[in-house]
Write a structure and sequence with these properties.
The chain is of the alpha/beta class and about 300 residues long. It folds into three domains: about 60 residues, Arc Repressor Mutant, subunit A (Orthogonal Bundle), CATH 1.10.10; about 110 residues, Periplasmic binding protein-like II (D-Maltodextrin-Binding Protein, domain 2); about 100 residues, 3-Layer(aba) Sandwich (D-Maltodextrin-Binding Protein, domain 2). Strands 3, 4, 5, 6, 7, 10, 11 and 12 form an eight-stranded mixed sheet that branches. Helix 1 packs across helix 2 and helix 6 crosses helix 11. It is elongated. The termini are far apart.
């Protein structure tokens, strides 16, 4: 077998269709079919159940898929390490991140990294923590920023704590304050009109669990929004929202209150596959993330003091 055959196999397995896989790989369909047939001949087993409606993996194909993904990931790592010996003049970093981090930490990280290493390709995958860890295990990511480290197996991943971030209640700075002082109790928050995230957000699960534990039912006016939309809706006075404090940096249209009784936090960690040496570009990205997180944490503290006024 060779790498081209494995790439063809993985593409057909992912798309479930030879025609679409050939188009994605810029191959003629007969060439793709020939590569798969040669791979099946070498292995002595059929890898796909071929039908008019599409192709599904056989038992042998299901066994090969995770191995093929890991072999392709290892081959890419070797290629990138050789390219990067010249000092990050080439290379690639595939970073996974949760949506709530994209509008704060990751935006700053990518800006700093790209300014220093413009020739390195940057690929972003934006999903919930569990999905990101699955992509990391499949060799589709180099690093993942996750907010639920308890889902990470110590045998499969190296997980390093990055920072602990406070969750705060935001409202429009153009509207009257929703509570006196600089804090608000969870029980009082439940009575306010709220803009809440999609159920796939780790942050949504955290806040829902807090309300359930306290026996409270929140007053939801908008449900299912993404981070950018949540911020926009709050800025326009539609309701309040619970967000990571880091979101407040450079957002003067928002006012913030600390959430108390209870205080809610989230732990952000950086994960990569255990036992695999990172490439030079990945090491630099990891260092950039750590440095930027420390800088934003300091800015976040200063912003909280101003935003509560």
């Amino acid at each position: 077998m060779n790498l081209d055959q494995l790439r063809s196999f993985v593409a057909v397995a992912r798309l479930g269709n030879f025609t679409r896989a050939a188009s994605e790989l810029h191959l003629a369909q007969p060439s793709l079919s020939r590569q798969i047939a040669l791979l099946e001949h070498d292995l002595g087993a059929e890898l796909f159940n071929r039908a008019r409606g599409g192709s599904t993996l056989t038992t042998a194909g299901q066994s090969l898929l995770p191995l093929a993904r890991r072999m392709l990931a290892d081959a890419d790592t070797v290629r990138r390490e050789i390219d990067e010996l010249a000092g990050l003049r080439r290379g690639r970093v595939r970073l996974g991140t949760t949506p709530t981090l994209c509008v704060s930490l990751v935006a700053e990280v990518l800006s700093a990294f790209h300014a220093a290493h413009p020739a390195v390709e940057l690929h972003i995958s934006e999903h919930g923590s569990r999905r990101l860890l699955d992509e990391l295990a499949a060799g589709e990511l180099d690093l993942a920023l996750v907010t639920t480290s308890d889902t990470a197996s110590a045998e499969r991943f190296t997980v390093a704590p990055l920072l602990v971030e406070e969750l705060v209640v935001i409202s429009s700075s153009a509207s009257p304050a929703v509570a006196p002082g600089d804090s608000i109790r969870l029980a009082d928050l439940a009575d306010l009109p709220q803009v809440v995230f999609a159920s796939s957000y780790d942050l949504r699960r955290t806040t829902d669990a807090a309300f359930r534990s306290a026996g409270l039912t929140p007053h939801v006016v908008v449900e299912g929004a993404e981070m950018d939309a949540v911020i926009r809706f709050v800025e326009r006075g539609i309701g309040v929202a619970v967000v990571p404090a880091m979101v407040l940096v450079q957002r003067p249209a928002l006012r913030a209150l600390r959430l108390v009784e209870p205080t809610l936090t989230r732990s952000i960690s950086i994960a990569r596959v255990a036992g695999m040496s990172p490439t030079a570009a990945v090491e630099v990205m990891e260092a950039t993330i750590g440095r930027t997180a420390a800088e934003l944490a300091a800015a976040q503290s200063a912003t909280m003091r101003v935003a509560a006024i």
